[in-house]
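Checklist before submission:
- one chain only
- standard amino acids only
- sequence pasted in full

Submission:
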Amino acid sequence: MAKYVRVGPRKLRLVADMVRGQNAKRAEKTLQLTLKRSAKVLRKVLHTAISNAENRGDQDVDNLYIKRICINEGPTFKRWLPRARGSASLIRKRTSHIELILEER
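Returned file contents:
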């Protein structure tokens, strides 16, 4: 699980859909070769989940697959940009929460 990731949820969901349901090791290789910025964040979360399963010792790492990957919307930071004639435009800096669950086949 990762919270308050500074990438928009729509961008993360595009990459999450690529690896949903895959074998964990294969998904890690797929994310490593994906050129999107959000792939790096998801790879980090996946690597952490694999390491946690390995250190607990109750699951075989080679048989793990991504059971569920859920990208939820986090809080939005609001910023202002000055515009013409004294007005201002709202800039939304979106964040995401990532929830990844591995299971053994």
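Reviewer check: Residues 2-104 form a domain with the Ribosomal Protein L22; Chain A fold (CATH 3.90.470.10).
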